[in-house]
Write a structure and sequence with these properties.
1 helix; Lipocalin; two-stranded antiparallel ribbon; mainly beta; 13 strands; ten-stranded antiparallel barrel
Length: 264
C-alpha cells in the first residue's frame, strides 16, 4: 500500500503546480459521484467472491474558512453480483452483493507553498449484505451473510492547483476497525443449523483516491481495501443440539475502480 501512496503523490508534483492561496481551502458544497469497480473478497485458502460493483456517493461539506476547518458527511452505496468459488463447497454465480457506508468527518486545512494539505478524522459505518442462498456446483447449500463495521477513519487530502486553472487531488486514508460483526444465516441451508453471530475486533482498511478536478466535474481512480482478522469462536447448534464451533476466518476485501463526480 505504501508503494501506491508514494506513486500518487509523486504524480501530483510532476504535473506542475502554482503557489497556494486561500482559494485552495476546503469549500462548502455538495457532490454526487458514480463509480464502477472490480470487487474481490477472499478468505485465503478457503473461498472468494469476485464481480463488478456500481456505486453512488453523496458528500456534503460545511467549511469554516476563517478557521481553516471543515465538517463533512459522506454516504456511499455500491452493489452488483459476484461469483462464489470455494475449495470445499464448489462454486456458484450471480450472487447479489451490496454495501452501504456512512461517515462523519472533521478536518483542518494547512496551506503549503504550492498546495493545500487537509487532515481529517471521524467515525465510519459499513454494512454489507451477500445473498448466497441456493445450491453450489457440489450440492452444498448457501446462505446469507451480513457484515457490519464501525471504524475510525484518519486521512490526508493533498490538493494542488495546476497552471491550466484546474487542480489535482490525492487522498490517503487509514481505517481502524473499532468493532465488527459477521452474521451468517446458516438456517438458510434448511439443514437445521443455528445462525452464527461472530464478533470481530481486529482489522484495518485503506482508501486511496486520485482525481483531476475542474469546477464542473472531477474524475480518477480509487482503491478501497479491508483486512480483517479471524473472529471469536462461537457454538453452532443443529436441531437444538450442539453440533460444532464456527468463526469468521481472516479475510481481505479489495475494490479498485474509476469515479466520476459533479458538484451540485
Amino acid at each position: 500500500m505504501h508503494r501506491y501512496t508514494a506513486s500518487a503523490l509523486a504524480l501530483l508534483s510532476i504535473l506542475g503546480s502554482v503557489p497556494a492561496d486561500a482559494n485552495e481551502l476546503t469549500e462548502s458544497g455538495n457532490e454526487f459521484a458514480v463509480s464502477l469497480g472490480l470487487y474481490r473478497y477472499e478468505e485465503p485458502g478457503l473461498m472468494s467472491l469476485r464481480g463488478l460493483k456500481g456505486g453512488f456517493d453523496l458528500r456534503t461539506t460545511k467549511a469554516y474558512r476563517a478557521r481553516h476547518a471543515f465538517l463533512r458527511g459522506e454516504l456511499r452505496y455500491a452493489g452488483g453480483r459476484v461469483d462464489y468459488t470455494s475449495n470445499g463447497t464448489g462454486s456458484s454465480s450471480g450472487e447479489p452483493d451490496w454495501y452501504i457506508e456512512g461517515r462523519a468527518l472533521v478536518g483542518n486545512d494547512w496551506l503549503l507553498k504550492s498546495s493545500t494539505l487537509s487532515s481529517y478524522v471521524g467515525l465510519g459505518y459499513r454494512f454489507l449484505m451477500n445473498d448466497g442462498r441456493g445450491i453450489t456446483s457440489t450440492g452444498a447449500g448457501g446462505y446469507r451473510r451480513q457484515s457490519t463495521y464501525f471504524y475510525l477513519p484518519v486521512g490526508l487530502i493533498y490538493r494542488t492547483a495546476l497552471r491550466s486553472g484546474n487542480s489535482m487531488l490525492g487522498l490517503v486514508e487509514y481505517d481502524h476497525l473499532l468493532a465488527g460483526n459477521q452474521f451468517s444465516k446458516l438456517s438458510d441451508t434448511g439443514l437445521g443449523y443455528s445462525d452464527l453471530d461472530s464478533k470481530q475486533t481486529d482489522g484495518y482498511g485503506v482508501k486511496l483516491r486520485l482525481a483531476y478536478v475542474t469546477p464542473q466535474w472531477s474524475a480518477g481512480p480509487y482503491l478501497h481495501y479491508w483486512n480483517i482478522a479471524k473472529s471469536a469462536v462461537n457454538p453452532v447448534y443443529k436441531n437444538g443440539v450442539l453440533n460444532s464451533y464456527g468463526w469468521e476466518p481472516h479475510n481481505r476485501t479489495t475494490e479498485v475502480g474509476l469515479e466520476f463526480s459533479r458538484p451540485f
